[in-house]
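W.,

You were right to be curious about this one. When I first looked at the sequence I had no strong expectations either way, so I just let the prediction run and decided to look at it fresh. Below is the sequence, 142 residues in total, followed by the output.
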Amino acid sequence: ILEEYEKIQNKVLPRSFRLVKELCLAHYISNKELRRYYRKWQEGKRKDESLLPAKIGAKPGSRRTPKAIERNIMKAYRRFGSNRYELVLLFKPYYLDRTPSPATMDRIKKRYPLNPAQKKIIKRYEKVTEPPPLYLPRDPKG
């Protein structure tokens, strides 16, 4: 079809069709589609393989955070109860450019939810100071 289309465009004489419209009607294809295929064919150095669909984008799940990193994030979250920004700051020195973004941290936490018992276990490690000993006056009677 594409070679015929070229002949019509260049007005080369022995050709099967006089107009592009006739070529399109004979092959049940729209003019727009024919031009699209022709452009692809020309860009692919006139090889038939260039008309095949190209691979597009990443496969689903290939850009997902690795399981090992997800596990570490969940361990830290369950242990410290940190928010997403604190988790990013915590993992930045270890994973450098592979550290998930704060939004990804939230998606990971949502993927592995905590049950009510685990929510109670979360502890924040904070410095605890002992209160000063209470001053109890001596009983005068002894």
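Here's what jumped out at me. The chain has two domains: 2-51, 67-121. And, maybe more interesting for your project: The CA atoms of residues 84 and 103 lie 7 Å apart.

Coffee later to discuss?

I.
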